[in-house]
Amino acid sequence: MTEAIQLIVGLGNPGPEYSQTRHNAGQWFVEQLARRYNVSLRPDSKFFGLTGKFVTQGQEYKLLVPTTYMNLSGKAVAAMAQFYKLLPENILVAHDEMAIAPGVAKFKLGGGHAGHNGLKDITSKLGNNANFYRLRLGIGHPGHKDLVTGYVLGKAPQSEQKLIDQALDESMRCFELWLSDGLIKAQHRLHSFSAA
């Protein structure tokens, strides 16, 4: 149904010390999609990340988890976009979002990066074009900007992680709804969901 999305990117930092941290919420989404469609995410040096693909409803979708650090995510996204001749609006980037509470997620097209280094780098590497889709996965805010780095690079307490996991699960269902019935329906369902 949607020709638009061809690449789904999950943002995170590489390495086991980061795998369970809040900043890797976007990566968790792509890993969940990979499990759902029995895809092995394999390292691909040409794209500076882990890649895979799946076909559903006759469409092929590419998966990418950049293995650069978060602030260099654009290198991986731009490499893949150029190779496959993708426009920014063919790309969905899943990322952690401090402006939203844990247990809540939202789809959005374009917009600013709100200080998110991954989004900032992707925008700049796509020729300063921010017109890609985002899946904003709420992780909440620590309350003060000086606490942000430790917060995003820390693990959520189990109660919060449970909410994030529920939002991830609902996001995956709504992504599939997007593919079958269009973005408006998917947004309507996802944006009325809250695990809290």
Explain the overall architecture.
This protein has 196 residues and is of the alpha/beta class. Helices cover 36% and strands 21% of the residues. The chain has six helices and seven strands. It has a seven-stranded mixed beta sheet. Strand 3 and strand 4 form a beta hairpin. Helix 1 crosses helix 5 (158-181), helix 2 packs parallel to helix 3 (117-125) and helix 5 packs antiparallel against helix 6. The longest helix has 24 residues, at 158-181. The radius of gyration is 15 Å and the shape is globular. The model has no long low-confidence stretch (mean pLDDT 96).
Question: Topology of this structure?
Answer:
Elements: E1 7-10, H1 25-36, E2 42-44, E3 49-56, E4 59-66, H2 73-83, E5 91-97, E6 105-109, H3 117-125, E7 133-138, H4 148-152, H5 158-181, H6 183-191
Parallel strand pairs: 1-4, 1-5, 5-7
Antiparallel strand pairs: 2-3, 3-4, 6-7
Question: What distinguishing features does this structure have?
Answer:
7-stranded mixed sheet, 6 helices, 7 strands, alpha/beta, 196 residues
Q: What composes the largest sheet? A: 7 strands, mixed
Structural class: alpha/beta
- Residue runs with pLDDT of under 50 for 5 or more positions: none
* Mean pLDDT over the full residue set: 96
Name the helix and strand elements from N-terminus to C-terminus, one letter apiece: EHEEEHEEHEHHH
Ends apart, CA distance between termini: 32 Å
- Helix percent reads 25-40%
Question: How many helical stretches?
Answer: 6
Number of strands: 7
